[in-house]
Amino acid sequence: MNAESSCDKPLLAEEYPPLAGAVTEVRRTVRTMLTQWQVPGPAAEDILLVVEELLANVIDHAQTPFRITVDRRGSTVQVAVRDRSCAPPRMREVDLTALRGRGLRLVAAIAQRWGYDGEDTGKTVWAEVAV
Question: What are φ and ψ of residue 20, in 5° steps?
Fold first, then answer.
């Protein structure tokens, strides 16, 4: 199989509202998908953490409806979250006293690669995790 093509059907979610309940629904769906794809436990947990962090950023910062795509590409799974905010993602300085604000640092530590694609109508933040 060619690493450029998807070996399994990607999740192309309907648009979700920027609410915490949507994260629970998406996480459940992605977990089921990863099980069907036979993604090993540690990699599946890493992917689920990336999903949670990217969605938390949409809810906390973009505050717009979003779409998520999860696509297996050979030995990686790509998670991509599209929102309607044009503001680029911003990695914060580490504040050891803060309870939050480490999401993109976690994504960067877990993912082989991550980034974002900006457009006139929003952006897509993506991360690729090895499986």
Answer: -55, -35
Task: Write out pLDDT tens, residues 41-71.
Answer: 999 999 999 999 999 999 999 999 999 999 9
> Between 103-110 and 41-57, two packed helices, what is the crossing angle to 10 degrees?
150
The domain of 19 spans: 11-130
Tokens 């540690």 label which residue? Answer: 42
Asked, for residue 5, whether it belongs to a domain, the answer is no
How many domains is the chain partitioned into structurally?
1
